[in-house]
Write a structure and sequence with these properties.
This protein is α/β, with parallel strands linked by helices. The protein has 14 helices and 13 strands. The strands form three sheets. It has a seven-stranded mixed sheet with strand order 1-9-8-5-4-2-3, with helices on both faces.
Length: 462
């Protein structure tokens, strides 16, 4: 036997004694008490409270510490629990958590096959991300008018459907539901994808069905700026398993979501080059709690909305925002239209003087990226690279849409004379009656009441 064979015989793998029998250094968690206390500081706890928290938790054995990503986590995932809670609340089969409403939109667009050569119809009143994510998916946004609901006008959508149209994106703005029946009829007639942007109306309903579940996919922003959500998060929902799988692939191109991460694709179209929009366990934990609170918050807001609007007197030349399903509105705002823009400013100023939080949508000429005329990124066909994609895409073999800051005059007119009033879920009955009384007081001073009609019975003349 050679010397090398003797050495090999002594290897632990051959039955010899292992060389490492125990390391002296104690293991320390990568994420521990200090990070936990930084969260306490973020929550705004006093120095004294933080000291008390440190004293209470410093002796705890947390092993290796928390793993703050959802995949391969030894503990039950908070993100998974958040998705399950969201799916239950939104009444959908699949809910996928991502890190923002914008990433939810892009993920949905790409899952639906939107890309080079496609047109996507979006409303002229929505946050810019609705259109920006279309461009990120390498498609062309087509901007449509809104109507007195402050949501996309199905009549204008019908005019803007062309041979390149791939999808319609109805946006349920400021808690209000789109007119989904004609939108879905158009989609069926023209074989179009419907992707609902429900960023501002989580929990809204249309004829008893949750918004976000009418189309092929629904997108949500679950953030500190919405009534449900904290930090930054988003959701993509669908009842279609294939779309869900494709959305998973885009949100995590590392494929941690797959049963066998590195396996060949199970069906054509499952795997493609995606990105990383995964949600962290920190955001998942916070928003799990937010969704558990959502049903009660939604009930409170609807009660306040119905109490305020139920005590308003209709007035001549004042048109309430068209709410197609009063029972389905979220209810954190109410709105109405004055006969012209200067008078809207007069009414808004008078309401504020009475103690009502009121403003005109375009007040002060602010460059509000919720209004299409300020989307220079789209109107001027801006691109991240000198090649100008997607505006110069050879797959898009037709003239670009006629982008101009006055291309949707009805949208601009409505927003210039629309007054929005913000409501609080915490208002008492007395608070609601005070606000309704203040609105009636101001409208009485400038307009004649309409006898024998309710607020929501007043319809616009088209």
């Amino acid at each position: 036997m050679t010397d090398r064979q003797d050495l090999q015989k002594n290897l632990a793998v051959q039955g010899g004694s292992p060389a490492v029998t125990g390391l002296e250094a104690p293991s320390q968690p990568k994420v521990g008490v200090d990070e936990f206390l930084e969260l306490a500081d973020t929550w705004g706890f006093s120095a004294e409270a933080q000291q008390a928290i440190r004293a209470a938790v410093e002796g705890e054995d947390i092993g290796g510490g928390p793993l703050l990503t959802r995949y391969y986590n030894p503990r039950p995932s908070k993100v998974t629990a958040f998705e399950e809670e969201a799916a239950k609340f939104l009444r959908t089969k699949y809910a996928l958590a991502v890190h923002s409403g914008t990433s939810a939109l892009e993920t949905a667009y790409i899952a639906a096959g939107i890309g080079p050569g496609c047109e996507v119809i979006v409303p002229g009143y929505t946050f810019f991300a609705t259109a920006a994510a279309v461009v990120s998916a390498k498609a062309i946004p087509v901007i449509a008018e809104i109507d007195e609901s402050l949501t996309i006008d199905p009549l204008d959508v019908a005019k803007k459907i062309g041979p390149k149209t791939k999808a319609i994106v109805p946006v349920h703005m400021i808690g209000t539901v789109c007119d989904m029946d004609p939108i879905m009829a158009l989609a069926t007639e023209h074989d179009l994808v419907v992707i609902e942007d429900t960023a501002q109306a989580c929990g809204s309903e249309y004829k008893g069905k949750r918004c976000g579940t009418f189309g092929d996919l629904g997108c949500f922003s679950i953030s500190s700026y919405k009534y449900v959500g904290a930090g930054e998060a988003g959701l993509v929902i669908t009842d279609d398993e294939r779309l869900y799988v494709r959305a998973q692939n885009h949100h995590d191109t590392g494929a941690c979501w797959r049963p066998d991460r590195y396996a060949k694709e199970r069906e054509e179209g499952e795997l493609f080059c995606g990105t990383n929009y995964r949600l962290s366990e920190l955001e998942g934990a916070v928003n799990l709690v937010q969704f558990k609170k959502a049903p009660a918050r939604l009930e409170r807001m609807r009660h306040v909305y119905k109490t305020v609007t139920g005590n308003l007197r209709p007035h001549k030349d004042i048109v309430p925002q068209q709410v197609r399903d009063v029972d389905g509105i979220v209810g954190y705002t109410m709105a109405f239209f004055a006969p012209d823009a200067p008078h809207a400013e007069v009414l808004a100023e008078a309401l504020r003087a009475e103690g009502v939080s009121a403003s005109v949508f375009t007040s002060g000429g602010a460059r509000d990226w919720h209004i299409y005329r300020y989307w220079e990124h789209v109107l001027e066909q801006k691109s991240a690279t000198a090649e100008g994609c997607p505006w110069t895409c050879p797959y898009y073999d037709k003239p670009l849409p006629p982008y101009a800051d006055d291309m949707c005059p009805r949208t601009l007119d409505l927003l210039s004379r629309g007054i929005v009033i913000y409501l609080s879920e915490w208002w008492t009955e007395g608070d609601c009656l005070q606000v309704a009384g203040a609105i009636n007081k101001v409208l009485d001073a400038y307009h004649d009441p309409i006898e024998g009609a309710a607020w929501h019975e007043i319809k616009p003349v088209r």
